[in-house]
Design goal:
Length: 192
C-alpha cells in the first residue's frame, strides 16, 4: 500500500496590483548582503495564512497614510543555503538544521514608505547585519525609534511577531512548526 501524497502548502503571489504594496525583492538584485542576485525571478510569495495577515497589515498601514515595501518573502531552502554559506551566523541567518521561516512561506522582510514612495528612516538599511539593526537598539535618533515602533505596531496588529536582531523581519507565530517548502522547481532561484 502506498502512502497518500501530502499536498504542498499553497503559496500565494503578492503583487503591486493585487496587494497595493511596493516590491523590491533584494535577493533578485545585487542589493543584498551577498552583493549578487540569488533569485532568477522576482517572485514574491507567502503561505496563505501569512498572505491574509499581510493584507491586514496593508490595510492598517494605509489608515496611517503609509504603504509597505517588501524586500523578501518566501525563500527556497536552496537560497537559504546560499545566504548561510555567505554568513553562517545564526544571529542573522537561520541555521539550516532549523530552517528559515522564509522557507516555510511564513516570514516577510519589509519596511514602511510614504505615499510618494520614500522609505521611512529605520536607522539602517535592509540586510544590515549589525547590532544597530536590533528592534530596540538604544541610542538611535527618536524619529528612527518612532518609525521602527510604527512598523512593529502595524505588523503585530496584523498577527505577525518579530525577531530581536532585524527590524525588517516579521513572521507568523509558531512558524517553526510548519514544514519547509521546496519550491525551487518553479524557477525563482539561481544558485550562485
Amino acid at each position: 500500500m502506498t502512502e497518500p501524497l501530502t499536498p504542498q502548502p499553497r503559496l500565494i503571489p503578492i503583487t503591486r496590483d493585487t496587494h497595493d504594496v511596493d516590491i523590491e525583492l533584494a535577493y533578485a538584485t545585487g542589493h543584498n548582503l551577498t552583493g549578487k542576485p540569488i533569485y532568477r525571478h522576482a517572485h514574491c510569495l507567502l503561505l496563505e495564512p501569512a498572505e491574509a495577515a499581510l493584507r491586514t497589515a496593508i490595510a492598517i498601514a494605509r489608515e496611517s497614510g503609509l504603504k509597505l515595501r517588501i524586500f523578501d518573502a518566501y525563500r527556497p531552502p536552496q537560497a537559504q543555503q546560499v545566504l548561510w554559506d555567505f554568513l553562517p551566523d545564526p544571529t542573522y541567518i537561520a541555521d539550516l538544521k532549523r530552517g528559515s521561516n522564509h522557507s516555510r512561506g511564513a516570514a516577510v522582510d519589509l519596511t514602511l514608505i510614504d505615499m510618494t514612495g520614500a522609505p521611512l528612516d529605520m536607522g539602517t538599511g535592509f540586510d544590515a547585519m549589525t547590532i544597530e539593526s536590533e528592534h530596540f537598539h538604544p541610542g538611535l535618533p527618536q524619529p528612527v525609534q518612532r518609525n521602527r515602533l510604527m512598523l512593529l505596531g502595524v505588523m503585530h496588529a496584523a498577527g505577525f511577531t518579530h525577531i530581536r536582531s532585524e527590524w525588517w523581519h516579521y513572521e507568523l507565530p509558531g512558524a517553526l512548526a510548519l514544514p519547509l517548502i521546496d519550491n525551487a522547481d518553479s524557477g525563482p532561484l539561481r544558485l550562485m
